[in-house]
C-alpha cells in the first residue's frame, strides 16, 4: 500500500499484562491465525503491523514483552490515537492491574486518546475469574468502551478493530 492514498494514519497500541493475549489478538486480526505454542511474547516478537481498515491506514503496535516490567516506554503512548487495554478473563491479577495501566495512560497518552477495555480468552469460560458485570462497571466508571474477545476462536476480534477504526474516523 502506498503512503499517499490515505486520509488518516491511526496508531493503535495494545497494552495490558504479559500473557493476556495481545500478540494473539494482533495476529488473529492481521494474519487470521492463532499461533500455536505456549507462553507470552518474548523480546524478538515486537511488531508494528500496518493494515487498512475501512480504507484508512492503521498502525497497530504490539509490545515486545516490556509489559512484564509493567511500565511501557513513553514512545509507545506518544501519538497513539487509540489504546486497547487488555486483560485475561481467566486471570484476576490481570484485571486487578488495570488501574496501574490507567495511571500510565493518564501520564503518557494524549488526553484525546480512545481507550477500549478488552477481556480476552472468552473461549475459556469455565476458567472465568472476572465477571462481565464487574468489567462493565469498571469500564463505565472509566468511560471506556468494553468488549470481550477470543483470539483463539476469533470471537469479536474483527469487531474490536473495525469498531475502533470507525470511531477513530468519526472523531478525526
Ligand atoms: P501477550 O503477552 O499479551 O502478548 O500474550 P500472547 O498473545 O503471547 O498470549 C499468551 C498466551 O495466551 C499464549 O499461550 C496464547 O496461546 C494464549 N492465548 C492468547 N489469546 C487466547 C485466547 O483467546 N484463548 C486462549 N484459550 N488462549 C489464548
Ligand atoms: Mg505479546
TrEMBL record:
Which coenzymes or cofactors are required?
A: Mg(2+)
EC number(s) from the headed UniProt entry: 3.6.5.2
How does the UniProt record describe the way this protein sits in the membrane?
Answer: Lipid-anchor
Q: Which InterPro entries match?
A: P-loop_NTPase, Rab, Rab30, Small_GTP-bd, Small_GTPase
Instruction: List the keywords (alphabetical).
Output: Cytoplasm, Cytoplasmic vesicle, Golgi apparatus, GTP-binding, Hydrolase, Lipoprotein, Lysosome, Magnesium, Membrane, Metal-binding, Methylation, Nucleotide-binding, Prenylation
A single Gene Ontology CC annotation of this entry is:
autolysosome membrane
Q: This protein is called what? A: Ras-related protein Rab-30
Q: Where does this protein come from, organism-wise? A: Callipepla squamata (Scaled quail)
What taxonomic lineage is listed for the species of origin?
Answer: Eukaryota, Metazoa, Chordata, Craniata, Vertebrata
Amino acid at each position: 500500500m502506498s503512503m499517499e492514498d490515505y486520509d488518516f494514519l491511526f496508531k493503535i497500541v495494545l497494552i495490558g499484562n504479559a500473557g493476556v493475549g495481545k500478540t494473539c489478538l494482533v495476529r488473529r486480526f492481521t494474519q487470521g491465525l492463532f499461533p500455536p505454542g505456549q507462553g507470552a511474547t518474548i523480546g524478538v516478537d515486537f511488531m508494528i503491523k500496518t493494515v487498512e481498515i475501512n480504507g484508512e491506514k492503521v498502525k497497530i503496535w504490539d509490545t515486545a514483552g516490556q509489559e512484564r516490567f509493567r511500565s511501557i516506554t513513553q514512545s509507545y503512548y506518544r501519538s497513539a490515537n487509540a489504546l486497547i487495554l487488555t486483560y485475561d478473563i481467566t486471570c484476576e491479577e490481570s484485571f486487578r492491574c488495570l488501574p496501574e495501566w490507567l495511571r500510565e495512560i493518564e501520564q503518557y497518552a494524549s488526553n484525546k486518546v480512545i481507550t477500549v477495555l478488552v477481556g480476552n480468552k472468552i473461549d475459556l469460560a469455565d476458567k472465568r475469574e472476572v465477571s462481565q458485570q464487574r468489567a462493565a462497571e469498571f469500564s463505565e466508571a472509566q468511560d471506556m468502551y468494553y468488549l470481550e474477545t477470543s483470539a483463539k476462536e476469533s470471537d469479536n476480534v474483527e469487531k474490536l478493530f473495525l469498531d475502533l477504526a470507525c470511531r477513530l474516523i468519526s472523531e478525526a
